[in-house]
Amino acid sequence: MKRLKEKIFIIFCFTACFTAYLQxxxxxxxxxxxxxxxxxxxxxxxxxxxxxxxxxxWTDLDKDxxxxxxxxxxxxxxxxxxxxxxxxxxxxxxxxxxxxxxFSFFYKVETALKNILSDIRNGKKYDAINLSLMSSxxxxxxxxxxxxxxxxxxxxIISALKRGNFIERIEPxxxxxxxxxxxLGVKVYIGGGNxxxxxxxxxxxxxxxxxxxxxxxxxxDGEKAPWSCNNSLINRWALGGLIITxxxxxxxxxxxxxxxxxxxxxxxxxxxxxxxxxELVEYIIGTSYATPIAIVEDFKK
Length: 301
Known about the structure:
Blueprint: H1 2-44, E1 47-52, E2 57-59, E3 69-70, H2 71-82, E4 87-92, H3 105-121, E5 128-131, E6 136-138, H4 154-162, H5 171-183, E7 187-191, E8 202-204, E9 213-218, E10 236-239, E11 241-243, E12 245-246, E13 250-252, E14 261-262, H6 267-270, E15 283-285, H7 287-299
Parallel strand pairs: 1-4, 1-5, 5-7, 7-9, 9-10
Antiparallel strand pairs: 2-3, 6-8, 11-15, 12-13, 13-14
């Protein structure tokens, strides 16, 4: 009788342990499946990074020659308005971790690109990057180079930049990192750059990035804009301007009929002007804005 009780006790203990094990495995599987669902959902989110200035005001909206809004904020707002399903991430070149605030602007680009690549290696996903920045170079700096044959001078330009001034010497590394991002499947959109009206005498050094989408600016009639760089490395064209319209309480520059910027934030209003006396700019132009427009064309559902 005593041995029978011992056997029953042993069987009970085994059964209890085995049941607990199965329950643990079930909970683990449920947790694992839940985590997989979260990861799958995250992988479906379109994430776009805007690498730009979000600290210092750059663009005048009320014709008083005083900047009202940051360059990057306009691009961010346009993408946010037209791609509501996407996660638009601001990467502020003027407020980066591990970046010396006294460094050249393009050294800050270097830091931003290193951070993005590090995030990708650690599992973060980026679908696209908006880089509406110009590193200006003149054709006449390179003997025989012109807009039609610029593609043949890529290696010459990279070599010259490596021997250039302290700002230019940073660019080949930035170009290499942008090419690495392209090789990782990230769509890198780069503004083709702007020139003085009708003077196609310079190009954006970042136009030499292989695998990127280089965006030139079009006029509203579909013709290539006379203020846009136009060369053999530009492989995409999009409307290069945003029309400014007044709303009840501010300005719409995304074309969505919403208020993107409030009157109360305009420099002229802050300096005492009345809303009735406001004179707004009609539009803002540049390949900076052609670039997010191209992104919306590609990612809009």
